[in-house]
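Quick check before the chapter quiz. The format below is the same one you will see on the exam, so make sure you can read both the input and the output lines.
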Amino acid sequence: MLPFLLFGARKENNVMVRWAWPFKALVDHDGEKEENRSSTGAARPDFLCVGSQKGGTSWLYRQLALHPDFWMPPIKEIHYFDNLSRNKRLFPPRRRDERDVCFLESMKSLSTQPYIDLENYGRLFMHKGSLLSGDISPGYSTLSDEIIERVVGYFRNLKVIFLARDPVERAWSQLSMGVRLGRISPFDVTDLDEVIRNLRSPGVSSRSYPSKIVARWRCHVHPDLFRLYFFDDLERSPTELRRSILHFLGADPNKPSGQLRADHNSSAGKEKLQLTDNVRSHVARFFKDELRACARELGGPAREWPARYGFSLVWFFIGLADDVDLVPWCDCLV
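Here is the expected output.
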């Protein structure tokens, strides 16, 4: 009998989390169910990049696809665990050689199954040979704890990357892309009610709370196998960010990615919805608690996010004190 998970969504901590299709039951040679076994062969992904959407994942895919230590799938986002790859492709997949063709054929066959098959998902990566490979699908940021636990338990040495971005900037970038691609109906960007309505939509809200996404993945991934990076560093020092990620994945940071520079960004210059100061301020207030949570729990550049929107350090520390019942300690800040 298949371990069954309903396909749909639920709300956890104000975040919409998607469920997935049922898993194929694993069976050992004695015919008994075998749970969470490790995939030790070469036919497995070495890493997952689970987001965030509009956080630099396209940049990462291009850097790895052209790096000599990697063989990356011919499509950037496989989306196997969130919708069994039934997503509409914006661009035709790469068909550079026989490995690409075989991958696409296997992916097509795998996506017709009414359940998640971890063994055959792992075999998609047999084409990498001795190189590194992985799955960069920002949609995985919305996976439930049940799915995360099963995937991480099966691929024991799987490394996980998350690229975090200021939730105000990230959400606005997603709305802009959605309108540009026809996924979101055009709306009046000066109408605050319309803006908030779009921010509350499941497709946006489920990806807009990085503190909760990171916490959910950290619950199941060993600290040595999880790395948090920031879109801020991609803007400030892409070379150093590239070096850090390559080092974590076990590749040589000194090898170039073909002729592609570390600061190459194909998303630059794409049209975005106009964000006025008034709307920006309201969007920031909408994400006020999340900005505080990110500053406290993610650290690094996230500590700077509240100040971008006029939230002072006094506000931040008072919020922190509220969380740990240290309000009297903050009397000197008032």
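If your answer matched, good. Residues 1-20, 26-40, 324-334 have pLDDT under 50 and may be disordered.
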